[in-house]
């Protein structure tokens, strides 16, 4: 098609610069290939607020109907709203979004009926190959298109999963980053005893205020300041497609996603004692420790939604959490929902009298570095050298996802190569700040060879 499909068909989705890498022709062909692969009779499509999302999703719908499939157009929505649609309607789905990427990007997240993920090993490679070679012509009757508004049903379903009755009044600052949280948050929080202070709720895919990527500290500064200035009880930040949520306490301090994972895990285990909780290799060891203390089963897995969802399906886990702010719920078709996680935190905070920092104090007993990236010429060689350096003093070494080394004092670190860039990603955890800082700096010095 004159474009590099291998560049935009990623591990879990399609994503590229519009229109130089990803355009309406590719969207149209992908829609046709999606229907052909799944032999789908009907699909559902939603899109975010980016300027190109509406036209690209319309082209995808054209491709789908050209293969005889009927199309349900859900219009504007968050990615977890699309998962709700695919789950509740039991239809394959496509979400047009580039999530937290800058404005020039767009993409497609696709799933099977019931919100089961589609990645390179579960259909995305076949779709890419069909787009490259041409989707066979369909000689039957083209499909039809109908529009539906699923926002009310999506919110109603979330409310069945979290009991918010009786929570005390709270002041909540929400930074939607001009992304889809500006559309879903007002509906999801309506009718609750909340004084909501909105930041950047205007849907604007040019992201005029800051990138809609709350994992980067600079993108949380406006939220942190607003929480402190307004005397709010809590701050919430959503990424561009609102499937991730980050939390700030009443002091304006970031609450790590590991801490939120522990909190929600305890709430879900109270509802279903003895259940299984999934966590990836980067999540604080406080999570599996808490899960075991509660008499339940922690399962450790690789980073990435396909691995989390796969393990949830295999083990019947009720909940899973990642360090990146993705939270997965069995009763939400094992899909991730930042909004559902946010509702859990609001329910926990509003169900007791103390501040959020005090409520969460026991869930975060360790010092963590956060993820630190280092550019390297050869990630595999760097990891091999680090493993050799620490082999004599490690109490455990594993390669489930990159390299994880545990030490006798209880500290540990993980090194993972980026899938798309010449980077090594380092995460460190220890019992106190000094130990964590020393280990962090020691490993970084080894990786960077004296470079700043």
Automatic annotation (TrEMBL):
Residues 7-132, 152-252, 258-365 form the Alpha-D-phosphohexomutase alpha/beta/alpha domain. InterPro entries: A-D-PHexomutase_a/b/a-I, A-D-PHexomutase_a/b/a-I/II/III, A-D-PHexomutase_a/b/a-II, A-D-PHexomutase_a/b/a-III, A-D-PHexomutase_C, A-D-PHexomutase_C_sf, Alpha-D-phosphohexomutase_SF. One of its GO terms (molecular function) is intramolecular phosphotransferase activity. Its cofactor is Mg(2+). The keyword Phosphoprotein applies. Keywords: Isomerase, Magnesium, Metal-binding, Phosphoprotein. GO terms for biological process: carbohydrate metabolic process. It comes from the Bacteria. The keyword Magnesium applies. Residues 371-444 form the Alpha-D-phosphohexomutase C-terminal domain. Belongs to the phosphohexose mutase family. This is Phosphoglucomutase/phosphomannomutase alpha/beta/alpha domain I.
